[in-house]
Design goal:
3-stranded antiparallel β-sheet; disordered N terminus; alpha+beta
Amino acid sequence: MTTTGPYDTQDISDAPDASGDPYAESRPTTEGRVYTVSGGDWDAFAAEAAEMAEGSLVVNMGPQHPSTHGVLRLILQLEGETVTDTRCGIGYLHTGIEKNLEFRTWTQGVTFVTRMDYLSPFFNETAYCLGVERLLGITDEVPERARLIRILMMELNRISSHLVCIATGGMEIGALTVMTIGFRERELVLDLFELITGLRLNHAYIRPGGVANDLPTDGIEKIRDFHTLMSKRVFDYIRLCNENPIFKGRLVDVGYLDLAGCMALGITGPVLRSTGLPWDLRKTEPYLGYDEFEFDVPTWDTCDAYGRFRIRLDEMVESLRIIQQVVDRLEEAGPGPVMVDDPKIAWPAQLSIGNDGQGNSRAHINKIMNESMEALIHHFKLVTEGFSVPAGQVYSAVESPRGELGVVMASDGGTRPYRVHYRDPSFTNLQAVGAMCAGAQVADVIAAVASLDPVMGGVDR
């Protein structure tokens, strides 16, 4: 037997020469198996496949597959319907963002990092900006209103990200109503993002020193309307799913990973908290003043996909609690600055929303152009060259919807980063796929991967 590709086998004892196929090699044989495979770690699998039992099979699931949450390739070793080994093939969405940051100014870097984990862009931006501000030594100089707006945007983003996880996870196990109502609510959050930042995705809204612009005049009113509506609709998921016997049948005891496994693999986020450990950086290592707000860290004790679903539901409720407190404080404090008061650092942008979308306000442009030649030169140098950051290295981390999102950044004293590297939780959490799926059925692999909620933009970067 031989193959003309990674999967197809044929008996070539009496077959013509296959050398005309540019993607295959062949040699005559009448016994055993001959595998012709290429790419990734197929060579290792080919060596193992020669020693397999007769009923074993190695198959690809993805990277073009509706249940792999993006271009994730799962290499499954099967015995019948039972998974005996699982490996992840990644890199199909690699965009070189971290390397590109070395050729852009510190502020321009925000437009790159927001595109990494595209379901939680505000967390990417915040982790990056917290690191830059620590290197600059201006952490305490960031205005209070900017700090509150950052928390507000991240908690709205946590809700939208969890909605995608629950919606797509429901779709993959046949719960289409969960998918439709999940994306219905997510659209409401994206409407708020567009109202505040001008964009639904890839915002580059959180900048070193603060945020790009203040909330619009009707921003708080719109957020309160969403809060009221979402506080009611989150219970639709609870009534629909929590005790649904079919839903529980697909998730309970699926994708099991206990605390010891999480600690050994560095797993964080809802996967870790489903083991009963209340590890959340907002509580354990507070940043941006999260310790000033009242909220709980939901945990579960089943170590399975069902527990991770319940945690994400509960976390949306807690995010709504935080949003309520932030909005109250913003309304009580009134208008104020949203960018650090240092013209050598503050990005010169005062945005306004017009008929053509959002951009620099006409009054701000006129001020730059007409105030003085020195003001115009300063604006030009700040935009084209950026600001210098003292030499040093820092690590900053935030609690993203998928776990600890950290960034290591180093400066050599110039206007561009020397090195920026992200610790993306999706990348780390994917290590658990093999342990979670060993001995499971093929159908359970779908639910197990969905419970990790991986986003390949963050994995591959």
